[in-house]
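Quick one, tokens below. Sequence please?
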């Protein structure tokens, strides 16, 4: 068995005249936890679709578990499990029926389906609800069931596209506990896209993609040392104060909710800013080098500057009641 789980060689992809992947190259080792970070429209989902055999690259080559995604799509699909950003469960069926149908699709024998379904339901702590209709499940329960389904056929690689978006912190923590356990026990390779950057602080490798190009890649600490800056996060009292700060410090980065981020590695510049503008600020805080600051330094954006639809989905999920 090869030590390389995922290989992407000079892959390009476009929709009409818009290039969404521009000569992307990646190598992911078997058993690694790999995080793919990027703002909306960066090309993350297109790359995942190519690796999941849902879309062909316009040029270049990609393989998963040693199988070319274009020349050997069936063998590639047998090697992967996928948790999509949007739920793909049949909510008219029970949890057990969703798993059983997935096992049928993958050609698992009845005895194997029963054993594996019981095993993955236990893993995600849903045995008690195995015969409940999925429509009655909370968002967190559905996501846990989707993870169970993705693992049913014992894949070598697990793709997670925004697996915890809209979920409460407790459920997110529980899901990552399951995944860490699986990686240790089964040498499972996990590729994740997420807007919750704190969730990938412990990943083996982090890749930042923007406008279809990979702009940085490495272990989290390595990226912090290489690209991480200290930032001063500020909230001006009003728009006039914000405009004055941007005019005086053009390297300040506008963020969401009218806030700004100013590079703070130069103490003299920071002291001069505070002396000049402290009476015009509602809030001020320092941020030490983090993956978030790496992302901000490289892209000029916060990772959580995401689309309105995604924010709406999170708000809706937060308002839903029901089981956890």
């Amino acid at each position: 068995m090869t030590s390389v789980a995922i290989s992407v060689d000079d892959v390009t992809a476009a929709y009409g005249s818009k290039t969404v992947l521009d000569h992307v190259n990646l190598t992911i080792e078997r058993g690694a936890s790999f995080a793919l970070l990027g703002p909306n429209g960066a090309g993350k989902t297109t790359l995942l679709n190519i690796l999941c055999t849902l879309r062909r690259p316009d040029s270049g080559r990609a393989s998963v578990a040693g199988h070319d995604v274009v020349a050997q799509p069936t063998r590639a699909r047998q090697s992967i499990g996928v948790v999509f950003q949007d739920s793909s469960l049949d909510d008219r069926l029970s949890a057990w029926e969703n798993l059983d149908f997935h096992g049928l699709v993958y050609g698992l024998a009845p005895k194997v389906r029963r054993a594996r379904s019981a095993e993955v339901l236990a893993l995600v702590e849903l045995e008690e609800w195995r015969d409940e209709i999925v429509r009655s499940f909370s968002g967190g329960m559905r996501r846990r069931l989707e993870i169970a389904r993705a693992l049913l056929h014992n894949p070598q690689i697990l793709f997670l596209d925004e697996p915890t978006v809209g979920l409460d912190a407790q459920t997110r923590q529980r899901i990552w506990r399951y995944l860490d356990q699986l990686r240790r026990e089964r040498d499972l390779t996990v590729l994740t896209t997420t807007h919750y950057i704190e969730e990938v602080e412990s990943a083996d490798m982090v890749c930042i993609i923007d406008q279809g190009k990979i702009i940085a890649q490495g272990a989290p600490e390595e990226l912090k040392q290489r690209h991480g800056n200290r930032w001063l996060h500020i909230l001006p009292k009003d728009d006039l104060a914000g405009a004055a700060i941007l005019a005086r410090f053009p390297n300040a980065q506008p963020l969401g909710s009218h806030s700004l981020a100013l590079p703070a590695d130069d103490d003299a510049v920071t002291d001069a800013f505070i002396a000049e503008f402290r009476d015009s600020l509602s809030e001020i805080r320092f941020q030490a080098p983090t993956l978030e600051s790496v992302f901000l330094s490289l892209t000029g954006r916060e990772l959580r500057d995401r689309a309105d639809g995604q924010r709406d989905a999170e708000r809706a999920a937060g308002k839903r009641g029901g089981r956890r």
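The radius of gyration is 22 Å. Residues 4-224 form a domain with the Rossmann fold fold (CATH 3.40.50.300).
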